[in-house]
Structures are given as structure tokens and as C-alpha cells.
Amino acid sequence: MEQDYYSYIRKIFYRLSYVYDLTDIFIMDIRTEVVDLTDAKKGAKILDVATGTGKQAFAFGRRGYEVVGIDFSEHMLKVAERNNEYNNVGFILADAAKLPFIDQHFDVGCISFALHEMPLSIRKQVLQEIVRVTRIGGTIMIIDYSSSSEKRAGGYFVRYIARLYESKYYAEFIESDLNSLLKGYGIEVTAELSAMYGVARILKCIRR
Ligand SMILES: C[S@@+](CC[C@H](N)C(=O)[O-])C[C@H]1O[C@@H](n2cnc3c(N)ncnc32)[C@H](O)[C@@H]1O
């Protein structure tokens, strides 16, 4: 099951790496909202987990933070590295389920639009790892499809349209209770912003 996940998702993002940044026109505005809501202190160390082509990492980097983006797709990371114009942003090829960092190394752990690409068993490992490497009292930012969208258009899109193009793990993710899962890992949601007409949500959390 997990082996299947690794080859399945890597294959998808090998193909998508060539065009992925085109999709960012729909997400672009969220990147700055995430940085604003995070409101990290000057010089904060930020980890962007499953960074893909690095767009969220760059948004943090633009504000002067020390940013590391990790992803297990070398093809997505190649695009990120090619577009990196910041000395304070770096990328590492790594599995989010086994992060190569010591405990509590980061002030902020962020994961955007990646939890829905993972089966529950991996999602749990990834959350556990984000908690491990984020300092106690630090911030965890989670951005993903909103399963509880109250907005009509957004709710329809999440339930019926996104299913048509998203990975096979999407349906389970969207029906699951992410907030309860987070709670179980000591991730306490302190603020929630709806984005993209209710298609997505940005969760600001404290690492307990
Ligand atoms: C939809 S993209 C999102 C990329 C980026 N975070 C963004 O907001 O644009 C999902 C990314 O998750 C990565 N990913 C999925 N599972 C992963 C894992 N276990 N470890 C590292 N990266 C992973 C994929 O390679 C892909 O780049």
C-alpha cells in the first residue's frame, strides 16, 4: 500500500512538474495570505513540507525568513531550484514522512496542498514529523482543500470537480475530519481563513 503510494505520487508529479506552475495562477493570492497569517518573527526558521515547485517557500523567502523546502519529487524540486532567486531559501530532496531534521528545529512548519495526496497512514506520519521538527509553541500552517466548505460554489467544486483530476487519495481526504486528526497530534487550530471561494482553507495552528 505505502510502496504503491510512493511510486504512484512520484509518477504523477514527474508528469506534472512541467506544467505545475500554471496551476499557481489559481493559488497565487493564497501564498501571501499564508505568510501574513503566519506572522512569524523576523529571522524565523520555516520548513515548507512537500514544497513542490517552491511557490510557498518563495513567498516566505521574499519576507526574509530562513526557509527550507523539502519534497520527494526530484522533478518538482528541479523547477524550484531553477526559479530560486533567494539566498535564504534552500531545497532538500526528502520524504515528508521521515524528515531529516532534529527535533524542534523550526519555528514554523508549513504544508500546502499536499495532505490530500497522501493515504491516511502516510498523512499521520507526516503530521507527526511536522510536529516533531517544529518547536513547542511554534506555528504549523496547513493549507488544503476545504472539506467543510459552507460556500456553495467552493463546496460543489471540492465534492464533485476536484475528484475528477485529483489523486486516488483525495476522496478519503475530503471525507475525513482533518481537525480531529490534527488535535490527536497536538496541533491546535487557532485561526482559519477560507480561500479560493471556499475551495481551500488556511489553518494557523500552534504546536503544543
Ligand atoms: C500538489 S503539490 C503541492 C506543492 C506545493 N506545496 C504547493 O503548494 O504548490 C504536492 C506535492 O507533495 C509532494 N509530496 C507528496 N508526498 C510527499 C512525501 N511523502 N514527501 C515529500 N513530498 C511529498 C509531491 O511530490 C508534490 O510536489
What does this molecule look like?
The protein is of the alpha/beta class. The chain has a single domain, classed as Vaccinia Virus protein VP39 (Rossmann fold, 3-Layer(aba) Sandwich), CATH 3.40.50.150. Helix content is 44%, strand content 25%. The protein contains eight helices and seven strands, in the order ααβαβαββαβαααββ. It has helices at 2-16, 20-38, 55-61, 74-83, 120-133, 152-165, 170-175, 178-184, and strands at 45-49, 66-71, 89-93, 106-112, 134-145, 187-195, 200-207. A seven-stranded mixed β-sheet has the order 3-2-1-4-5-7-6, sandwiched between helices. α2 (20-38) runs parallel beside α3 (55-61). The model has no long low-confidence stretch (mean pLDDT 95). It binds S-adenosylmethionine (SAM). S-adenosylmethionine binds next to α1 and α3. S-adenosylmethionine (SAM) binds next to α1 and α3.
